Amino acid sequence: MEEVEVVVAHNERATLRVGDVFLKIDADQARLDVEVEAMALAPIPTPEILWRKPPVLALAALPGTALGRLGEPSTASSAAWAAAGAAVRMLHDAPLPPWPGRRLDDLASRLDAECDWLVTNDVLPVDLVTRNRRVAEAALRPWTPVFMHGDLQITHVFVDDDKITGVIDWSEAGQGDALYDLAILTLGHEEHLGDVVAGYGTDVDLDVIRAWWSMRSLLAIRWLMEHGFDPAAPGCEVDVLKARM
Predict the structure, then answer these.
(1) Alpha helices, DSSP H only, in 137-205?
(2) In terms of DSSP bridges, do strands 65-66 and 163-167 run parallel, antiparallel, or are they unpaired?
(3) What range(s) does the Aminoglycoside phosphotransferase domain occupy (predicted)?
């Protein structure tokens, strides 16, 4: 008898695996709508949608394994990381999705609020927050929007034989900054940034990617703590911030 595996679960949504089927449960139907539409528009492999009955979306499992996990060394080859970069470039070259993405002023105000919270609640040392806030500000510049995945963690990219078999979790997709996707893909795995950029195939501003590493980590820590995750685990968000020192 097949067991139910809890892939991820918190009070906003949950993903379960039963055999070769993933069940995504999300009370926010707009988020599931984005996921379904983004997968239909994306020019790269995505999971097959088996059925949808709100609040549940059933997806077929992808072949292969995830590119890696945050906080753990990746066993994927340089060629696999380069293939991921090439897939991201294909996505970014595609026509824009019809819905909007992040706004610069929203990001700036969120950064202010989260940095204040981290310091006021003694979550992180003041100098660590101040340094990374300064680094993060380089991401707050005008960009040409692309079709952005929006949550391109390495656990969302599946590879087999150094080829991309699919990308999952499209609920944050929209119009956005190309370098944000590249930053999230390499967060905590700076040693593979060169492979990803080589596969991406065009010049990128590495300082902006590093800025997004700081930005994403500063913005995520409170949410992670409130939802039962540990951003201070080895190789995770707090270590990413310390690396900028």
Answers:
(1) 178-186, 193-200
(2) unpaired
(3) 39-201
DSSP annotation of 97: P
- Inter-axis angle of helices 193-200 and 178-186, nearest 10: 140
Q: Which of 2, 32, 29 is closest to 17 using CA atoms? A: 2
Contact 41, 92 (CB under 8 A): no
CA atoms of 201 and 218, how far apart (whole Å): 29
Is the pLDDT reported for residue 25 higher than 80?
yes
| Distance between CA atoms of residues 85 and 82, nearest Å | 5
CA nearest neighbour of 210 among 235, 245, 175: 245
Distance CA 37, CA 127 (A): 42
Given a contact cutoff of 8 angstroms between Cβ atoms, the answer to whether 200 and 182 are in contact is yes
**What's the chain's length in residues?**
245
In a 3-state reduction of DSSP, which class is residue 225?
A: helix
Say if residue 1's pLDDT is above 70: no
C-alpha span between 239 and 221 (Å, rounded): 12
Mean pLDDT score, 168-172? 93
